[in-house]
Amino acid sequence: MRCTPISGKRGSFISGDVSFDSGRFVICSEKDSRIVLTQIHDETDRDDCVPIIDVDSFDRRFINSDLVKDLRLRGRNLWLISYIRTIDDVIDAMCGSFEILCVPTHTVDGMDVLSDALEISDRIIPTVFVDRSGVPLFERSLDRIVKDVRNLGYPGYALLDIDHMELTHHGQMNDPDIVSDSSFTML
User: Fold this and answer.
1) Is the Cβ–Cβ distance between 82 and 101 less than 8 Å?
2) pLDDT at 106 (0 to 100)
3) To bridge 55 with a disulfide, which of 25, 41, 145, 173 should be the other Cys (CB 3.0-4.6 Å)?
4) Terminal-residue alpha carbon distance, the chain
């Protein structure tokens, strides 16, 4: 699933092409997010998943609460990828209209945050940032991360390919169910 980066404050959200540099997302060729989201709405079907990257959260190290409160896309399942450190961040992020919260495994204060998050909601997906070859950017081996997530009781995980801004969700830990859609392209 192609990810859509969003940045800004209430009433002035922007989107555009994005790159990932030194742990931060950088939007280039800025566009009004309303135009981008309208195009996404027109190019997707009802109940399709639309991953949104909270660009500002990775820069500031906390959730963009305006984005969480205000972003909507009628008839689509929004998935939020945001900088999450604590269980309070999880709770704040779940207050929006997002169907799924993708929690980057490298940003949490510890695996206990993921454990507590699973007790709060089954709409949490641990997410590993990887390069185009599938190697985790910030952490130990992918096998070790998946084992840790499995031991916590999660039924799946996601990989975010930061080179292509593609999110791939893997269902059952022993049988990856890839739901990536390579036919969707960003503006």
Assistant:
1) yes
2) 93
3) 25
4) 14
Mode of pairing for the β-strands spanning 4-6 and 49-54:
parallel
- On whether the CB atoms of residues 126 and 103 are closer than 8 A, the answer is yes
Contact 128, 139 (CB under 8 A): yes
Alpha carbon 37 to chain centroid distance?
A: 16
Residue tagged 């490298």 (tokens)? 106
The answer, yes or no, to whether residue 186 has pLDDT greater than 60, is: no
Q: pTM score, two decimals? A: 0.86
Which position has the token pair 């791939």? 168
How many CB atoms are located within 10 Å of the residue 118 CB?
17
Is beta strand 24-32 parallel, antiparallel or unpaired with respect to 14-21? Answer: antiparallel
Residue type, position 4, single letter: T
Distances (CA, A) of 141 to 24, 30, 48, 124, 156: 21, 35, 31, 21, 17
Q: Tell me the CA distances in angstroms from 100 to 20, 31, 139, 144, one per residue in order.
A: 22, 25, 23, 23
pLDDT band for position 172 (50/70/90)? Answer: low
